Amino acid sequence: MKLFLDTANLDEIKAIKRWGVLSGTTTNPSLLAKEHSDWELQMKEICTEVPGDVSLETTESKADDILEQGLKLASIAPNVVVKVVMTPDGLEAGKRLIDQGIPINVTLTFSPAQAILAAEIGARYVSPFLGRLDDVAADGMHVLAEICEIYAVQAYETQVLAASLRHPMHVVEAARLGADVATMPYDVFTKLVKHPLTDLGLEKFDSDWQKLQQELKEGA
Ligand code: E4P
User: Which residue in the list 17, 62, 72, 83 is annotated as catalytic?
Assistant: First the structure.
């Protein structure tokens, strides 16, 4: 399973990229709004920095306008994947973008039925939002499991991009169910690496090592 960062913040991207585990980035209008900067410049820098696909979301609502905006977004960099929302107009524009050779990510997907539509138009990614399903007392992980099962049975090539992940167990479960990609915020990435036993073990190794150095110094 590939790991993507869900952010429009360049420092976060640089930090996780240093770990050698970053395969792509997803953004959305809310994440861009948080940066309070010239989003186009910001996106150019992000696309240069990220070693893989960068999803940029369209904000128009009519198919013709989504298409026009999607073409502009795609011209920002060769690794841009245009995000379209799971609506009839989003699907129409998405299909027309695909027909022009532009990869798309169908976002705001909440059901297996919607995921079938994304696969049928030939999207590169479908993004089921697990955390937001959990927020309304639905079972995000169950929806992801159904999508992964259907995609396997139908041999769909669209990649399942588990999104709206809120904690490390979301990531672990998504991997177990066979998601192709997990996108997560910076704080979830940093939680993935943490374990109290790692910290305790490191502390003990450090103190034993220091003791040995002291003994050697005193014996010399
Ligand atoms: C994915 O592409 C979305 O940007 C993201 O995962 C949404 O997450 P949220 O529900 O935490 O806002």
Answer: 83
Q: Closest Cα to atom 7, ligand 1: which residue?
A: 164
33: number of Cβ within 10 Å: 10
pLDDT for 116-160, tens place per residue? Answer: 999 999 999 999 999 999 999 999 999 999 999 999 999 999 999
Q: Note whether 97 and 73 are within 8 A (CB).
A: no
The answer to whether the Cα torsion of 161, 132, 81, 54 is positive or negative is negative
- Assign residue 139 a region: left if phi > 0, alpha if psi is -120 to 50, beta otherwise? beta
Whether 204 sits among the annotated catalytic residues: the reply is no
Of 114, 68, 111, nearest to 91 by C-alpha is: 114
Instruction: Tell me if 85 sits within 8 A of 108, measured CB to CB.
Output: yes
Nearest residue CA, atom 10 of ligand 1? 164
Residues 17-70: tens digit of each pLDDT = 999 999 999 999 999 999 999 999 999 999 999 999 999 999 999 999 999 999
